[in-house]
């Protein structure tokens, strides 16, 4: 299966999420931009695999429970334990801002889990959101915690797109920002990816992976907090998360020994 076919398949499922109802071939082709013949082949394949079915026996199709079943089985083995998600929710409740756990993939940050603020005006990304690492607090926190070789490899892949007037323009500028953050123990992004947003992040080790945990929201609220106070709460949360992971590992080892 080609990469394009994989992208088209994901586009189809995301189209169902946006439409919120059964859809015809023509509707899905229009929503995804997939040519009708290719879209028809994909729908036929998904029907044969049990992922789609026409709820009324014919006509528009809709995803079956098989998709949820597979997703549930994947989630059950998620390396980010429920205890980690509980700590994210606790931090969200303490600061009343959105908390994000992310990983670095190449030159981009991928959001793994999001605990959204309950405030009406908030930063509201979704899990799976991708952001350029050079203008992201999680990316900077991770880059400060990994080896110089991995940091250099990631920075070579960055295009340093200017997202706002404050976005670092080159590797030298970003390196200085990363070193400054490493010295104080936390990273920040104040209007560098979006002029109206800001975030503070710390690195956290989860099952051997160096991830980043951030608190983000409207720029004025983060700046007024101030970032130093957010960083203190973040550091405590990261320590609790790492202890949660260690405790889970100890319990698993004890069960295996029994």
Please count the beta strands (DSSP E, at least 2 residues each): 8
Uncertain segments are none
CATH architect. name of the largest domain: 2-Layer Sandwich
CATH topology of the largest domain: Beta-Lactamase
Q: In CATH, what is the homologous superfamily of the largest domain?
A: GAF domain
CA radius of gyration is 21 Å
Oligomeric form of this entry? Answer: single chain
Number of domains: 2
Strand order in the sheet with the most strands: 5-4-3-8-7-6
- Structural class, please? alpha+beta
Task: Give the overall average pLDDT.
Answer: 92
Keywords: DNA-binding, Transcription, Transcription regulation
GO molecular function, one term: DNA binding
GO biological process, one term: negative regulation of DNA-templated transcription
Descriptive overview:
- There is one protein chain.
- The chain is of the alpha+beta class.
- The chain folds into two domains: 3-74, Orthogonal Bundle (Arc Repressor Mutant, subunit A); 78-254, GAF domain (Beta-Lactamase).
- Helices cover 52% and strands 18% of the residues.
- It contains ten helices and eight strands.
- It has helices at residues 3-19, 25-32, 36-48, 65-76, 82-95, 137-145, 148-156, 171-184, 219-224, 227-257, and strands spanning 52-53, 62-63, 98-105, 108-115, 130-132, 187-190, 197-206, 209-218.
- The strands form two sheets. Strands 5-4-3-8-7-6 form a six-stranded antiparallel sheet. A two-stranded antiparallel ribbon has the order 1-2.
- Strand 1 (52-53) and strand 2 form a beta hairpin.
- Helix 2 (25-32) packs across helix 3, helix 5 (82-95) packs antiparallel against helix 10 and helix 6 packs across helix 8 (171-184).
- The longest helix is centred in the C-terminal third of the chain and has 31 residues, at 227-257.
- The radius of gyration is 21 Å and the shape is globular.
- The model has no long low-confidence stretch (mean pLDDT 92).
């Amino acid at each position: 299966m080609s990469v394009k076919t994989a992208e088209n398949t994901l586009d189809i499922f995301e189209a169902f999420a946006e439409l919120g109802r059964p859809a015809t071939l023509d509707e899905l082709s229009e929503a995804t931009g997939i040519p009708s013949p290719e879209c028809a082949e994909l729908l036929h394949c998904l029907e044969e695999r049990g992922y789609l079915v026409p709820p009324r026996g014919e006509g528009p199709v809709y995803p079956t429970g098989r998709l949820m079943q597979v997703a549930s089985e994947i989630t059950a083995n998620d390396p980010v334990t429920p205890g980690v998600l509980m700590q994210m929710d606790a931090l969200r409740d303490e600061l009343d801002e959105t908390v994000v756990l992310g990983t670095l993939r190449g030159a981009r940050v991928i959001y793994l889990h999001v605990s959204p603020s309950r405030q009406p005006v908030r930063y509201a990304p979704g899990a799976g959101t991708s952001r350029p690492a050079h203008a992201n607090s999680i990316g900077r926190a991770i880059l400060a915690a990994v080896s110089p070789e991995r940091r250099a490899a990631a920075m070579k892949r960055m295009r340093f797109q200017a997202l706002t007037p404050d976005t670092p323009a080159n590797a030298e500028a970003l390196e200085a920002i990363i070193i400054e953050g490493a010295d104080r123990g936390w990273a920040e992004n104040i209007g560098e990816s979006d002029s109206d947003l800001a975030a503070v992040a710390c690195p956290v080790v989860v099952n051997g992976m160096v991830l980043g945990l951030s608190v983000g929201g409207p720029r004025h609220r983060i700046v007024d907090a101030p970032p130093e106070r957010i960083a203190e709460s973040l550091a405590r949360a990261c320590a609790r998360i790492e202890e949660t992971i260690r405790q889970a590992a100890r319990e698993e080892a004890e069960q295996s020994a029994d």
